[in-house]
Amino acid sequence: MHPWLVRAIAVGQRLGAPRWLGYDAVEFTANVVFFVPFGFFVLLLFGARASWVGMLGGFLASCAIETVQALFLPARFASVDDVLANTSGAVLGVLVGIVVLGRLRRQ
Residue 1: what pLDDT? Predict the structure, then answer.
């Protein structure tokens, strides 16, 4: 946990932010957002017909990151939730890429 983030969330909650908006929600959302560009750019690189490459690539990259954390970074924790969030971000990036490519083709 990042102490500055924990403090920022506590201040936000004192100012009226909802209780569900805690560290876990912020971390999950950050992991989703972090992988959106991955899915988006893989889609641009391989095209919409190979959209599965961005989704599978996001999953595999996330699994690799979590495996490295589990094996080589004792201060970090590997998490299935992180794999889920990262993969969701890659899928979201692919979907955004499909929409963007579709609009560009119509112009």
Answer: 63
Give me the helices (H) in the chain, please: 3-14, 23-46, 51-72, 80-106
Maximum pairwise Cα distance, the chain: 51
pLDDT reported for residue 80: 97
**3-state DSSP assignment of residue 93:** helix
Task: Give the C-alpha separation, 69 to 88, whole Å.
Answer: 20
Separation between Cα atoms, residue 103 and residue 83, nearest integer Å: 30
pTM score, two decimals?
0.86
Q: What is the pLDDT of residues 62-96, one digit of tens each?
A: 999 999 999 999 888 899 999 999 999 999 999 99
Nearest Cα residue to 38 out of 25, 56, 26, 24: 56
Query: HSE of 49 in the Cβ direction (CA atoms, 13 Å)?
Result: 0
Contact, 54 vs 62, CB < 8 A?
A: no
Contact 39, 89 (CB under 8 A): yes
